[in-house]
Specification:
about 400 residues; OxRdtase_Mopterin-bd_dom; 30 strands; five-stranded antiparallel β-sheet; single chain
Length: about 400
């Protein structure tokens, strides 16, 4: 199938010999081992290359596939390449092939008429494009202290892409939303591994779903979606955590009452406190569904404990994002936060995108130093100096610190 300049595989097949064959730890086909610097360990992970449409990735889990982007990838550009874009599924039963000709997107529920759209029908709607960061709610969970259960990600369960697709609003209008609609529930082709397992579904309030920014993508970075990243259609909820970005989207249900399914009422909830922060063991806290992202920034060209020459300028660079809005400024400190220097911001690709930054620094005193980086977004929200904590390991956005050796 071809539409515009885009040519789609008629059948996109995952094409590997079976996820069941992939060992969970240090498989024989692993190319190398990386250390993620997780406090208390274990922090060794395999670098693997045999997942289809994927280059070298950090293997966090094989069933379901959880693949982390090697951090050095973020130094190569503002957009994360598709073959190294992180992967996270909730159930091990994921689509291993999709026939484009037979695929349908259903829209039903509290609507005037149920519709079943082919991929061609969807792509005939007005085309939109947006750069946006996709970040797992638990990105950096492995850095929480005390440690919490769940995938022990370092900082690589995030990525930035230019998404191409259609507005969710336009798809909903094909069915006609009835008065009294409250939420829109999104479901994909993945399935629970046990009969009574809760199907993975996420919901957005009706006004959010129809705001014109939430979109259904059929391409990322100018190419069709990799199957592991949600081919053929993926929901894009700019500024919100990735749990809402339903992959292999196949079903849209308009609801006339709030969704109380497991993935909205129980899972992916956060303390209703500033920075979703509570003390370990604290109970009786009101919990709410996770929602908007918060600002973060990273140094990408200086590794921990890297040697920097004394008295010689060093160009430090990295990426930042504002969460649910744009980046206002990025500041760097080399004196433990006593003073901060403003970095030069790179090209603005849109308020939901990564934004590159750079700053020349000259460190004169030899010895151990710490470089700290912080982002302030256009709403004035700034990264906190102290890390948050919650039992799910969500929403880490503390000021990042990188130790260096000046010699």
């Amino acid at each position: 199938m071809s539409i515009g300049n885009m040519v789609f595989d008629r059948r996109r097949v995952l094409g590997y010999s079976g996820l069941a064959l992939l060992a969970a730890s240090r498989p024989a086909w692993a190319q190398s081992i990386v250390r993620l610097g997780l406090p208390g360990g274990p922090d060794e992970r395999s670098i693997v290359t045999n997942f289809p449409h994927k280059g070298p990735m950090i293997l966090q889990r094989s069933r379901p596939p959880l693949l982390e982007t090697p951090f050095e990838v973020f130094d190569k550009g503002v957009f994360t390449p598709n073959d190294q874009f992180y992967v996270r599924w909730h159930w091990a039963v994921i689509p291993t092939e999709v026939d484009v000709d037979k695929f349908r997107l259903a829209v039903h529920g509290h609507v005037n008429q149920t519709v079943s759209l082919s991929l061609k029908d969807v792509m005939a709607l007005p085309r939109v494009e947006m750069a946006a960061v996709n970040q797992c709610s638990g990105n950096s969970r492995g850095l929480f202290e005390p440690r919490v259960p769940g995938a022990q990600w370092a900082n690589g369960s995030m990525g930035n892409a230019k998404w191409t697709g259609v507005r969710l609003k336009d798809v909903l209008d094909r069915a006609g939303v009835k008065s009294g609609a409250v939420q829109v529930r999104l479901n994909g082709l993945d399935e629970p591994v046990v009969p009574d397992g809760p199907d993975f579904m996420k919901s957005l309030d009706i006004d959010h779903a129809r705001d014109g920014e939430v979109m259904i993508a059929y391409a990322m970075n100018g190419e069709q979606l990799p199957l592991l990243n949600g081919f053929p259609l993926r929901l894009i909820v700019p500024g919100w955590y990735a749990t809402y970005w339903v992959k292999a989207l196949s079903d849209i249900e308009v609801l006339d009452k709030p969704d109380d399914n497991f993935w909205m009422k129980t899972a992916y909830t956060i303390p209703d406190t500033p920075h979703a922060d509570i003390k370990p063991g604290q109970t009786g806290v009101k919990m709410v569904p996770i929602n908007k992202m918060v600002p973060r920034s990273f140094i990408t060209n200086v590794a921990p404990n890297q040697k920097l020459p004394a008295g010689t300028p060093t160009q430090v660079r990295g990426i930042a994002f504002g969460g649910d809005t744009g980046v206002a400024k990025v500041d760097l400190s080399s004196d433990d936060g006593k003073s901060w220097q403003a970095a030069k911001l790179g090209k603005d690709e849109g308020k939901y995108s990564f934004r590159q930054w750079e700053l020349p620094i000259t460190l004169t005193d030899k010895g151990n130093k710490t470089l700290m980086i912080r982002c302030t977004n256009t709403d004035g929200d700034i990264q906190p100096a102290q890390p948050n904590w919650n039992p799910s390991g969500f929403m880490r956005n503390v000021i990042e610190a990188t130790s260096v050796i000046v010699s």
